[in-house]
Amino acid sequence: MQKFVITGGVPLGGEVRIAGAKNAVLKMMAAAVLTEQPVLLRNVPNISDVAILRELLGDIGFEVRRVNGDALELRAVEATWPFVPLEAGMKMRASFILLGPMLARFGRVILPNPGGDRIGRRPVNLHVAALEQMGATIVYRNGYYFASAPEEGLHAAQYEFPTVTVMGTENAMMAATLARGTTVLDNTALEPEVDDLIDMLRGMGAQIERTGERRVEIQGVPALRGTEHRVLGDRLEAETFAIAAAVTGGSITATGVNPTHLAAFLAVCDRMGIVYEADPDRGALTVHGSRGSELRAVDVQTDPYPGFATDFQAPLSVLMTQARGVSTIHETIFEDRLDHLRELVRMGAEIELLDERRARITGPTRLHGAEVGIADLRAGATLILAALTAEGTSVISGIEHVDRGYEQIEAKLVALGARINRIEA
């Protein structure tokens, strides 16, 4: 087990290159299953979730290898073992994204009930319902989903998601690319990562279009081809470094990300009085912090994109501790995603948990170093940010959660001036 030791109080400054988006690349690795031809993904982040899925795809019988540093080449000729073991499913919820591609291409797959971050109930019933509308038979027993397609393959369907689901949208879209007929999906997710997956599928020959605000239509084709695709920059990583600049009183330029994908976050920055420059043409965002300036308190509610992302609210809570007045968070997506606030209280934050979805944060408060623990990926980024702005030294355990989604975060922070070390516990 490893820990971070962080001594705060240093303004961070410089330029940081944002890695490819975790929430896009995992789905694109699954999309490679839809063709027997080689697929080359570029700008692939070096994170543990990619390593886990890479190993899993290899166990199923597919070829996956790193090439030229940040590229990944995949080839899915034959699924010799269409089974996802429980251990892999518990490590990474995204393993369930194989449901749609495996059913569409190979007609069967066995997957465990997925695990991942402990942030509340994350049911996959909507994935199952959409695939059943396409003719799949899916039975759940003994902790596993046993899924099979008809002998003639999946067929088109019209399905409206009762609630917006990102991975449910992606699973259904990928399955529909090889289904017979035209599938219409309503109330789909609008995240940039979903649209990046659509672009990749088009490059593979899929007939897929957004025909309404939340409607996607897919005309199935007999087969897809290989493609080369560059993964978009990780907007969640960019937000983390933007907040790092604001809370430490530094100035950081994040490159390799489209600032328009951060519109909801930047709207909150405007309300708080944070100074920034967005350059979509260059793919850059610069945030200027000043410990002498006063941040304004804000009320934030999470919503599906283009609303304020649930993944954004945990890091934002650190900014709220430094704003004058009372800020509130209302988490509408997951019911257990405020647990990190208890760790901030241990660092001196003044926070009242109103219920499992709402909290009140009073600031500004002077945070101090403490020993704290990470429970999920975004909480990890939150505690790192808190330690960077706190007085004294903090010791953070559970950093394996951070490694799931942030590429070399300590090296990037050190390059910006942070005092952070990874140690063996």
In short:
With about 425 residues, the protein is of the alpha/beta class.
Q: What does this protein structure show overall?
A:
The chain is an alpha/beta fold. It has two domains: 210 residues, Alpha-beta prism (UDP-n-acetylglucosamine1-carboxyvinyl-transferase, Chain); 199 residues, Enolpyruvate transferase domain (UDP-n-acetylglucosamine1-carboxyvinyl-transferase, Chain). Strands 17, 18, 19, 20 and 21 form a five-stranded mixed β-sheet that branches. A four-stranded mixed β-sheet has the order 22-23-1-24, with helices on one face. Strand 15 and strand 16 form a beta hairpin. The protein is elongated, with a radius of gyration of 22 Å.
What is the element layout, followed by pairings?
Layout: E1 2-7, E2 13-17, H1 22-31, E3 39-42, H2 48-60, E4 63-67, E5 71-75, H3 86-91, H4 99-106, E6 108-112, H5 125-133, E7 137-141, E8 144-148, E9 158-160, H6 166-176, E10 182-186, H7 192-203, E11 207-210, E12 216-219, E13 228-230, H8 235-248, E14 251-255, H9 263-272, E15 275-279, E16 284-288, E17 295-296, E18 299-301, H10 310-321, E19 323-330, H11 340-346, E20 350-353, E21 358-363, E22 371-373, H12 377-389, E23 393-397, H13 400-403, H14 409-415, E24 419-424
Parallel strand pairs: 2-14, 3-13, 9-10, 17-19, 18-19, 22-23
Antiparallel strand pairs: 1-23, 1-24, 3-5, 4-5, 6-8, 7-8, 10-12, 11-12, 14-16, 15-16, 19-21, 20-21
